Every structure is written in structure tokens, then in C-alpha cells.
Amino acid sequence: MTRYADPLPPGGVPGEIFPKAGDIELNEGAERLTLLVTNTGDRPIQVGSHYHFAETNPALKFDRDRALGWRLDVPSGGALRFEPGQEREITLVPFRGARRAIGFRGDVMGEID
What we know:
It is found in: Cytoplasm. The protein is mainly beta. The chain has 1 helix and 8 strands; from the N terminus they run E-E-E-H-E-E-E-E-E.
């Protein structure tokens, strides 16, 4: 008997991952919103995958009202970096679940809808 409920199988590697065959589509079926964003600041700005995009750094210029309740359409844990003066088109997906924004910059602090 071991201390662990699921011992490592013979020949197994600790932390080994067994991915399913085929492709995984991120945010499958989610509505998408495309916005043009410009970094008007003098420093790079990085935005993480699950950050409420409407509450990002004020130096990022875009339609914040349209971005209310949306986040970047990038893999979990990923981010986009905006260099000073850079203008780029981004894609957002809606927050799911309870659709509450607590924290971030404190602009919403409750229900999004």
C-alpha cells in the first residue's frame, strides 16, 4: 500500500500529460468583439487573458463602453503586450458565469449587465 490513491503507472513520468487527439478550439461558440486599441502611453502595457478589458490601463485608447463585460480571446494564462504608440486590432470574448467584475480598477464592482 502507498500513501497515494493513484500511484504512478509502470514507466510513467511524474507530471506527464495525456492530451486528447484532435484540435481544441478556444472559446468555442462564444460571441466575439473586435476593437482597435492604441497605447498612448510611454511604457509597454500588458493585459492578461482574464482581465476585464474595459478596466485596463487608461493609456490604452479604445471604446471602453463596448468592452464592458469582455476579456481577451487568448489562451488561459496568456497576455497581449501593447508597446508605446502601438495600434492593434484585438478580439474579445464575453465573461461567462455570474458576469460580475470585482476588483480590477474598481470601475464596476458588481454586476456587468
